[in-house]
Specification:
This protein is an alpha+beta fold and 484 residues long. 51% of the residues lie in helices and 18% in strands. It contains 18 helices and ten strands. The chain has a five-stranded antiparallel β-sheet with strand order 4-3-2-1-10. α10 links the parallel β8 and β9.
């Protein structure tokens, strides 16, 4: 039967080729021709894929799957989604003692994802949802004519794969770190952490597209159980959509001249104390230090103390054999905002005097070893001459922020610049925009905890150049050793 289908597809291609030879040059509709060629080649692709998949089937009355015997062989129909379209075929199924769960050797040998999708289709689906909403992805795949699926499939399958990932997260993340190479020229890493707001379904929000107020759990929960911690939106008392703070983290590699070489991105949906994100960020850092004990480490964030508490704990837990230089730096651009606030209070907002004064203070802080105390003395000396309640309040806020960060040892910018360390958290700020803002903060968007995490998982993997490795690890979870 498979041979007949292949021959039929080949004959159709040959027939269309003969048809092309009769077309008048000025009557060719290239759009129609391209679509017809794609239809024919997809038919040929389906025939070949059916033949390949049949090769992976089992015919023995009993098989061993990962060393365990299975029997009671039966033949049942199955449908699989390939990049060329659906194929239907007969395949063998087995059970243990004739009851219970069914095993399908074809699927286990080939790593069929969620019982229906080839690994290539699974890659396309997860990349699509990482880049765009499901409805947009459905339209794009239909236009391209490859792996054409519905938006409900785009909604369901990546979430199921992400659930599988969460259940094996420690193992998979360790494998991803092990497969990632540290750039040979790297001398310094910046470990940075930031928060970013995401739109979430509040506890009182009705699920979209449901005909009942009490829907059954989504399919990924039915199969893999509830994943991840309970989100803040479950107990915040907010009607409908709510906003909560997710977390992003980055580990950026720099050479001795301060050039960025690569960046690893992490992102997690809102949860108490950013616990999963900070644990993952620390694991990334420790894996690097284990391989390169001499690498320099620069811990960076804005002024949010919970984030600094997490970074401080990471630094305190570094092993004694981590011999590289270490320092903490508050983001210089956040400091610059407070410097401008103080200058505006002293000279007047948007005045040339405020711009010149702010520039002078910024350069003093960045370039002079004792620049911070010097700027603080000048700021404090201007308090008596500053008029207006708002201006005095702004000046006091700026002085307090800068003095506090200096007291905590986070403003040694002259030393950092001398060592060619990054003094800003622009990479992490950009991560908040590229991982979350660009994809998730669209008009009308809102995300469940797991739905948002699915987007973050595959989007961060793309940005970190770990997408291939992630799918290799996920593919391995769908495979098993099958022998007659």
């Amino acid at each position: 039967m498979n041979n007949e289908q292949v021959e039929t597809a080949v004959s159709a291609l040959a027939e269309f080729r003969r048809e092309i030879s009769t077309m008048a040059a000025d009557a060719i509709d290239l759009l129609a021709v391209e679509r017809r060629v794609q239809e024919l080649t997809n038919a040929y692709g389906r025939a070949l894929m059916r033949e390949v998949m049949a090769r992976a089937d089992a015919s023995a009355p009993e098989v061993s799957i990962d060393g365990v015997g299975w029997g009671n062989r039966r033949v049942t129909p199955g449908t699989y989604e390939t990049i060329f379209g659906d194929i239907e075929m007969q395949r063998a199924t087995y059970q243990r003692s004739g009851r219970g769960r069914v095993a399908i050797p074809l699927e286990l040998r080939l790593g069929i994802v969620e019982g229906a999708y080839t690994p290539r289709v699974a890659r396309i689906l997860t990349k699509a949802v990482a880049l765009m909403p499901e409805a947009d992805a459905e339209d794009l795949l239909d236009e391209v004519g490859v792996a054409k699926v519905s938006k409900s499939t785009l909604h369901r399958v990546p979430r199921a794969m992400a659930s599988r990932y969460e259940g094996r997260r420690d193992i998979i993340e360790k494998a991803l770190r092990g497969s990632d190479r540290i750039p040979e020229q790297a001398t310094t890493i910046q470990v940075a952490l930031d928060g970013v707001m995401v739109p979430q379904d509040g506890e009182h929000a009705r699920a979209r597209g449901r005909k009942t107020d009490d829907p059954a759990p989504p399919r990924h929960e039915q199969r893999y159980g509830h994943v991840g911690p309970e989100p803040p939106s479950s107990t915040d008392g907010t009607l409908g959509r709510a906003w909560h703070e997710a977390a992003v983290g980055t580990v950026a590699f720099f050479d001795r001249d301060g050039n960025r070489l690569k960046t690893t991105y992490l992102a997690r949906m809102p949860e108490p104390f950013k616990a999963t994100l900070t644990a993952g960020l620390e694991a990334e850092m420790r894996a690097i230090v284990e391989e390169r004990p001499d690498i320099n480490i620069c811990f960076a964030s804005d002024g949010a103390e919970p984030q600094w508490a997490a970074l401080g704990a990471m630094r305190a837990r570094l092993p004694a054999w981590a011999t590289g230089h270490q320092m903490t730096l508050v983001d210089a651009f956040h400091v610059a905002e407070y410097v401008q606030l103080a200058a505006n209070a002293v000279e007047g907002e948007n005045t040339s005097g405020a711009k010149v004064l702010a520039a002078t203070w910024r350069e003093t802080i960045k370039e002079e070893t004792h620049g911070v105390p010097r700027v603080l003395r000048v700021m404090r000396s201007r308090r008596a001459k500053t008029s207006g309640k708002t201006a005095r309040t702004d000046l006091a806020r700026a002085i307090h922020y800068i003095a506090n960060q200096h007291r905590l040892g986070r403003m040694a910018y002259p030393e950092a610049l001398a060592r060619n360390y990054p003094i800003g958290t622009g990479i992490t700020e950009a991560a908040a925009k590229t991982v979350v803002g660009t994809r998730m903060k669209r008009a009308g968007a809102r995300f469940s905890q797991h739905g948002g995490q699915t987007v973050m998982l595959f989007r961060a993997a793309l940005l970190s150049e770990r997408f291939d490795s992630l799918h290799q690890e996920l593919h391995a979870t769908y495979t098993a050793s099958v022998a007659a």
